[in-house]
Amino acid sequence: MHALWKYIGKRLLWTLPTLLIVAVMVFFLVRMIPGDPAQLILGDSASPEELANLRASLGLDQPVPLQFLYWLGNVVRGDLGHSISNGAPVLPLMLDRFQVSATIVLVAVGLATLIAIPAGLIAAWRQNGHVDVAIVAASTLLMSVPSFWLGLILLLIFGLNLGWLPVVGFVPFSEKPWTAITYVILPIVTLMLIEVGVLTRMMRASAIEILRLEYVMHARAKGLSERKVLLRHVLPNAFAPTWTMIGLVLGGLLGGIAVLETVFTLPGLGRLLVDAIFARDYPVVQGCLLFTALIYVIVNLIVDLCYPLFDPRVTAS
Amino acid sequence: MIRQPANLLIGSALLIFIGGMAIIALFWTPYDPAAIKLIARLKPPSAQFWLGTDEFGRDVVSRLMAGAVQSMTVAILTVVFAITLGTITGLIAGYTRGLVDRILMVFSDALLAFPGTLLALGLMVISGPNKYGIILALGIAYAPSVLRIVRASVLSAREREYVEASRVIGNSEFTTMFRHVLPNCTAPIVVLATSMFGWVVLAESGLSFLGLGVPPPAPTWGNMLSAARTYIEKAPWLGLAPGICISLTLLGINLLGDALRDRFDPRTEQR
Amino acid sequence: MKYRNLLTMTAMTAVLATTAGSAMAQDKMMRVRINADIRSTDPGVNRDANSDAIVLHMVEGLVGYRDDASVAPLLAKSVDISEDGKTYTFKLRDGLKFSNGEALTSADVLSSWQRYVDPKTAWRCLKDVTGSGVANVTSVTAPDASTVVYTLEKPTALFLATLARTDCGGTGIYQKSSLGNDGKWVKPVGTGPFMLKEWRSGQYVELAANPNYVSPGGERTGYVGDKTPKIGAVRFMVIPDDAAAKAALYSGDIDVLADVNNADIDDMTKSGQLKVDKVAAMGLTGLLFQTRDPLLKDARIRKALLLSLDIPQITEALTNGQSAPSASVIPVPSPYSGAAEKQIPTRNIEEAKKLLAEAGYKGQPIKWLATKYYPSLFDSAVLVQAMAQEAGINIEVETLDWATLLDRYTTGNYSAMSFTYSARLDPSLSYDMVSGNKDKSPNKVWDNPDGLKLIAESTTITDEAKRQAIFDKLEGMIRADVPIIPLYSGTRIGAVRSDVEGYKTWPVGYARMWGVSFAPGK
Fold it and tell me: Signal peptide span per the entry (chain C) (predicted)?
């Protein structure tokens, strides 16, 4: 146990330079983007003096490295600043939006995993059979549909033509769970369908590898039923790569979900970030990207720590 | 073993079809893909326009063909760029280990921690939208995934007997790396390149969706798809055609990728 | 997290869920789309179009616009302008009350004004009332509780129009309780027909009917007249995506869509579930040239470009036939849009080619900036590219995001671009929007000293015939220089669910929810 804690400590320590690099990259990347918030606020009738005044009041007239140090100093103290667009403090704003994105991503990926594991396992077991061909074809097709396109089609069918589900809006779960579900069902299904494709393929590929290994033959030779072979020997071992994939998917989705959140008008973190990039709302962009990076690092750490649980061959050290 | 040839067959057939479409488009399209004909806006498919016309009266078939050229170029160049960059750094990281590895990993982690599309979005806004901006941006965004996978393969491969053997018989580190370690990475790289091809086509359409794709008049499937969004009820053919093209391409490349993996995977041969 | 206000939200969602029956029509909430979250509720400070539209439901100024963008008294009962045009005497209406029930007096007008002219407030229109812009207000006094007197340094035709400007927050009068003890803005306590109920960032802004609203009576027009609220609450829902907003209107998830795309009007009219109305708008969508560009500084090339374009056809395509072409900076609905302004240049490829040959143009590429943020700008670039090609002009379109395009516009760093201006409600302002000294204001496209003198003159004259003569002269000058090719001044299209009554679209375009109600029964 001691070794494990030491390992976690070491890993966490190594994330610090990563996060620092992210912070530097974010800050300077954002400021290299042409256009600035002052222009957007003042619009097409801004005069040079007005622009200069507004920039000064936003602190944008300072040298960029100085602005960076100032920002970093605040971040270390837990203050991510205030949105330029609407003055809201960045941290609560972000956490508020993160709840929405996280709920959708976690539920969608969870459901996708539940479908992908049996589907991938069965496909591998019946490799090259009709069932396999059907599963592979279906998952490959799902993988190859642009998410926003799929989302829009579902929206048109279920929201508009059939009128079963509301088209826009969002209600937090804490307030009215049943209504809330009707708002998030389509984005979750869209995301799930797309992730099912990726995860099924991954699960199938690793299960096939395991099925080729000798100990599976041994198990079969011992007279274990196919069901037991699959559940006891193949599943636990084949799940490890899929688990890594889930980690990658979870870490990456927070950014990728922005487009879906736009289609479904969900107040999620992805949309907050994209809107902020287009509005040149520097504090929000910086805060969101740093936060996403942190989430990514944490998810990866958790994935790595869980790895020994699924793959007995690897130890945490 | 029934599926092996089917994989290869269907996969290559699809890709040859798409590739052929692109090659023909270099020399000939039914109409000029950029020619605007305002009286023929949003016409449904007919004998004259097989797949109808878009919001500017441009022929959808011609634009699909020309779009194949653009989309393929962007996708192929991006994948090649990302794979090259990722493989080289991955080999270095995995083989040298130590401090260089640490530094490379910290940087790749930082890049990976950025959502890929958003990194590309930022770089695109800075570089200005053009084909090479997209390739550079997406390439940089995807290279770290290659790095990680190559590095992992190298780490496991370098401990194998035949790598030891190569070293023992006096092969240089460089030779060992390229002769014996790199081939071990082919399978994961092929699998990754396959899915990456898909990501690029999708990311390009995502960037177009956000208003930052390949500039007009050059059509790509991505910007056709995002432009079609506005007319989804009125002119569904506009979105169906590029959507189906994207899906067919991905299907082809995935099938081919599977077939190639089965073939090149050293483990398949060994056992 | 900070999900409070559980009760109200639950009540609202209950209404959402059970749209039928239970609630009285008057208590039902009406939902209106906004395409982005508002910036603040502080009138004329940190604002954009959505913020203006919502704030002006809550605060009112001394004067306001009518439907045709002319100015009429709002909180004032009457406005007297002295002979020399320098003194404006406003008589306040009787019995005015803020939404918290307190009476409004001239002291409130003074305190609001003092905050407006404090540079720390960063009021959008500060320069327009302190000298460098339209007017210089030298003193504001309140001789009694219902009288306010403004004194200007020089007479101007635009002072009242400036006070009424939507981007100035209508120079709305708010009570001191709008500010916290620290002097910071909290929320508007005004005299408008609605008051702020809840602003949930990124989701919606909800307003409730103001129980203390005092109507001046008279016809409901623009921001003046009888503005009595006929619904209990309005929720402005943030829906950034146009397609989603349209779908929401069809499905009944929103009731009012104030800004319908030109392309959708036919379908919406035909659908039978919606009521659609449209009106000519006062913006300007057009093509800008950088007259200092090494290539485009040659007026012959700019002229050739103009001649290569079929403006009516471009306008037809961009607006789906909803707007008439307008090649003048003065918008179509303006009373000053006369014969000279209404003229449309005709296409002449031969003449264009001749001019290009004279100028020695040999197919050098012209970088053309556009954005997809406004689809019409992107589309116009694509059309111009194709049409100019026929005259042998080689245009390369570059698509940028809106902020980058705006940056290039503001700094004048471009050769040519498609651009769209927000509404200017007076012809002098329309000209001022495009003209100026490029050294001082790089965002201006037309730098012609004679023109600038005429524009300055037009702001001081109130006689309409004399102003018309000046504008006609300016029209001829700017058309000869071709620094800009205006295409159209636009059309505002609003659509509402068929059970919504009393909604009206107007040239300024902002949704107005007073006087609007749900049809009884259903």
Answer: 1-25
Got the DSSP string for C209-228?
E-TT-----S--BTTBS---
Please answer yes or no on whether A251 and B113 come within 8 Å at the CB atom: yes
All structural domains of chain B: 55-264 (1.10.3720.10)
Q: Mean pLDDT throughout C128-136?
A: 81
| C-alpha–C-alpha distance, residues C284 and B105, integer Å | 52
Decide: C41 and C58 in contact? Cβ < 8 Å.
Answer: yes
User: What is the domain-level CATH number for residue C440?
Assistant: 3.10.105.10
Please report how the helices A90-125 and A235-263 are oriented relative to each other, as an axis angle in degrees rounded to 10.
130
- Shortest Cα distance, chain B CAs vs residue C420, angstroms: 17
CB contact under 8 A, C386 and B34: yes
Report the predicted TM-score, pTM, of the whole model to 2 decimal places.
Answer: 0.78
* Residue B271, pLDDT above cutoff 70: no
Residue of A133, A256, A274 lying closest to B3 (CB–CB): A133
Does residue C457 share a domain with residue C346? Answer: yes
User: Is residue C42 domain-shared with residue C190, that is, in the same domain?
Assistant: yes
Considering the domain architecture, whether residues C234 and C288 belong to the same structural domain is answered as no
pLDDT, residue A308, reads: 65
**Domain check: are C330 and C411 in the same one?**
yes
Tokens of B193: 């390149």
CATH number at residue C66: 3.40.190.10
Domain count, chain C: 2
Q: Do A33 and C402 touch (CB under 8 A)?
A: no
Among the candidates C203, C238, C273, a domain finishes at C238
pLDDT number for residue C475? 95
H helices of A64-143, where? 64-76, 90-125, 130-143
Judged by CB atoms closer than 8 Å, whether chains meet at C239 and A46 is answered as no
Q: Which domain covers residue C53, as residue numbers?
A: 36-238
* Cβ neighbours of A44 in C, within 8 Å: 406, 409, 419, 421-422, 433, 443
Give CA–CA dist C278/C271, Å, rounded. Answer: 16
Reported ipTM exceeds the 0.90 cut:
no
**Which C residues in the span 345-374 are in contact with B, Cβ-Cβ below 8 Å?**
371-373
Digit-coded pLDDT (tens) for B123-150: 777 776 677 888 888 888 889 888 888 8
Which of C211, C238, C265 is at the close of a domain? C238
pLDDT of residue C23: 38
Stretch B85-112: mean pLDDT, rounded? Answer: 84
Mean pLDDT of B167-172: 75
Question: What are C357's two structure tokens?
Answer: 């040959």
* pLDDT for C7: 35
Contact status of C380 with chain B (Cβ, < 8 Å): no
pLDDT, residue C198, reads 94
Q: Domains of chain A (ranges plus CATH)?
A: 91-268 (1.10.3720.10)
User: Minimal Cα–Cα distance from B196 to chain C, Å?
Assistant: 26
Is C21 domain-assigned? no
* Distance, CA of C456 to CA of C458 (rounded, Å): 5
Domain check: are C468 and C345 in the same one? yes
Q: A85 and C250 in contact by Cβ < 8 A?
A: no
Is the Cβ pair C263, B230 closer than 8 Å?
Answer: yes
**Domain check: are C198 and C60 in the same one?**
yes
Which one, of B238, B256, B151, lies nearest residue B198 by Cα?
A: B256
Least confident of A86-90, A309-313, B238-242, C44-48: A309-313
Residues C391 and C287 in one domain: yes
Q: How many helices (H) and strands (E) does chain B have?
A: 11, 0
Per residue in B139-173, is it b (16+ CB within 10 Å) or e — as a string? bbbbbbbbbbbbbbbbbebbeeeebeebeeeebee
Kindly state whether residue C261 falls inside one of the protein's structural domains: no
